[in-house]
Each structure stands twice: as C-alpha cells, then as structure tokens.
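Memo subject: From amino acid sequence to discrete backbone structure tokens
Action wanted: Derive the backbone structure tokens from the amino acid sequence.
How to read it: Take the token row as a discrete description of the fold.
Attached in line: The record itself begins immediately under this heading.
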Amino acid sequence: MKRQNCWEYMKCGRQPGGHKVFDLGVCPAAEDNSYDGINRGKNAGRFCWAVAGTFCGGMVQGTFADKRPSCLSCPFFSKVRAEEGTANLRTKFLRFISEDADGPVLSNMRYTQIRAGKRFITQGQAADAAYIIQRGTCQLVVEKDGDLHPVDHRGEGDIVGVMAILTGEPRRAHVEAETDMEVWVLNRDQFEHVSSEQPGLLDFLTELVADRFDSRRPIADRSIGKYVATDIIGRGGFSIIYKGMHPELNTPVAIKMLRHHLAMDPDFLRNFQNEAKTIAGLNHANIIKVYDIEERFKTVFLIMQFIAGESLSVKLERLKAISPSAAVHYSIQICSGLRYAHHHGIIHRDINASNIIIQPDEHLKILDFGLACPIGTRDFSSLGTLAYMAPEQINGDLMDPRTDIYAVGITAYEMLVGKRPFDAGDPRRLEDMVLQRDIPDPIQSVPDLPKDLQHFIIKSCRRDPNLRYDNIKQALADLKRLATKLGIASENTAAL
C-alpha cells in the first residue's frame, strides 16, 4: 500500500518539480535516495526527521539531533509512528512471540523503560542484549569518520540490537530513544537458550538480519579477521559485498559475505565455500582472484581482489545497449576466462550481466563462481539466474561447457538489444519460454548487426545443446574472426 511522503502530507511543494522549488529549493528529504524504500516511502519522504537541513515551520532545520524536539510534535511524524506500529507485520517481533504467549520467549524477558533522548546501545560495544519495543520509537545512528549518520528507524513491535547478539560481533550502530520507550529485554544467554528451544525463532531472526543488511546508508567499519570492511558496494539474494582493506598491507580488497539465513543452510554454505576453493585455484586475467576465507559471526566471508569499475548490468542500465564492437570485445574476454575454467574441469553455471565487472580500461573480470561445478554434473538445485539458464540446466540434465556458452549468448544478445530475449514477471512462464521457444533473431532489433555476430548469438543459444558450439574454443574462434573484421585489437584474441 502506498503511504504518504512528508511533502505530500505537508503540501510544501519542495519535492523535485514542486511549485516552491524555484523559491526555496528542493527539500533534502525529497532528494536523499539513500533512504529510498524505508517505511515504504520515496527517498527520505517518510524518514524526513533523520535528514539535516529540511525546511519546516518556516525555518531551515539543523541536524537530526537539533530538530528532534520539533519533529516529535510534528503531525506527520505522529502519523508515521501510528502506521508503522501495524505495518509490515512480517518483521514485527512482538507479532512472532504473541503467537506463542505461553512459550519460553516471554518468560525469559524483563520489562524496562527508556527515557526520550537516551542512547541505550553504543556502537562498538560488546553485545549483551536485544530490545523488543512495546511502545515508542528509536533511531539507529552510525558514527563514521567523526560524523553521525542516522541510518534506520524502529517502532512498536520491532526488535533492535538482535544482529549483534545473533552474530556475536560488536554493536554496529548507536541506538537512541526518540520518544519515551517501553521495551522487553532479552539478554544473550536467554536468547541462546530460547533459540535452541525454538528453531522457528532463530529462522525468523536470521531472515530479519538479512533484510537489515540492505541499507544504503553509511555502515560502521567491521573487523573481519585481519581485514576491515568499510562500505557496502554490492548486494544480491545470496550475499553482501563490502569494500575493505588489509590494514597492515594497506591493500584494498572486496569482502563477500554469505547472508546469515543462508549460512544456516548446509547446501548454500557448501556452495559458498566451494566458490572460494574453486576460484582460489584459478589464475586468469578475466577471473577474479580469491585471497582468503574467514568464518565468523555465524557466516562466511570470501576475501577477494578488489576491482574498480561497474558491472555489465549497471553499464547496460546506463547505456541501454552497446555497440557490436564493444559486445565482441567483452564476449571474447568472457569466453577467454571460461575457456580457462573449462580447461580445469569447471563450468560456471551463472554467467550473467551482473557477474561481469568492467574495469575503467575496458578489461573485465568474471565473478561469482559460487555455483560452479565439475563438467558433467546434473543440476537438481535450479540455482542460477533464470533468464540466462540453458534448458538443460532448468531441467536438471547433465551440464557441460555448452551450458555456459548458452549464457554467454544470452548476455551478448542483452548487450546489443538492451534487454534479454525472454522476460516475464512470472518465473514459471519464463521457464516455459526458455524451454519451448528459440530466442528472437537479434537482427530484428538491431538491423545493422554484423551477420557473423548474429550467427554467434543464435548458435550459442540453441535450445538443443548439440546444435550449439561444441566447446568454448570454437566460439572464441568465431569471435576472433569477427574481431579481425571489425578491427578490434585485443590481447584476448591474440591468446587463441
């Protein structure tokens, strides 16, 4: 359900395009998109009290701490508090325990009150308790580089502080009461006892923690073994990617964390650990390098080569489509990395535009070998990115290098046309399209497409693996000939 943003409620006209923008400028709460989606609002439109410099009551306001008293008396703030008390019940801890009122959860908690303005959780401290909010609201504030950054908001029914007692790491933010609060306190020993008695509670909380890792606000630095994670730079359904440093060597790294609710699944955990072992044994210019693996905080972290650049998916989102020459240049590099992996008996299984990073010098790296498996494996897991999956992968049949070739063809089509050949909101319908239809001829969308590139895409994407290229070396040979015709200079073509 759509909920009002502050400028819609207050009718101030200071949203982008509003009638007061020329005189007063755009309100910071209407353009700070790092809060986008919080409380189902646009930008900071439902979290305006966390944004400095807003214009309310006829005056420009200061920081979140300066403006807190006036915000607490604001009718919009009261409206949001009331709505959030009942909204998104899936994440409300009180909803969970109210279904089991006679169980061990309530009997192990104590009740207390917290006065407005009090900081009751301090960033960096060891965690000994979580707080379940019976009444009132609080704000999560990250301290970073000497500045305070409000990052989230909790209200009635929510649990705050659970991440630290679940994972065992220090607190990742300050938490300050906005209003007088009534809370239930669950300490760590009680939490561990209750979660051992109620596996459903642990599942609920680990999924909740996974959701909360998706904030786009600043994060506190995290120590991961001998590494320090400083910023979130990527998110996926399975993992969170951090930018990090090896402080002693002053070397940038990328740190990939398996989401906590998946770390509890032995199959996902095995796949994730398999990624580290697989890539650590590979050494190729177009494959990202894994340096280390750390297991802590109830999950697993891969320490990888840090690559400056953007994913192919982001590039396509920005440019819509790219030229045939660029598509050939990228496809040669993807195939070059895959030829190396296939030579070592490994197929990737999840080649797609999000797993390709383009560096500023136009060289690329293949990411995410987490679904990699030996050639000849049957896939009964249906893991992978559906729009790029070959029919035999969807069906759970034997897979070989031709499975990756199909995904390369889909990726090349997307680069040239600006969209994937099959796109459907319903996964079942998308599966049926992949299994029952040949891809559209890309020349219908790109009339001046070179015939050899058209042939490469159509042959790579045949539904029957026997009609595709027999191996990646054959595909590379065709791409090399095409590169020569197009006048593309690449060390990857010379390496064939």
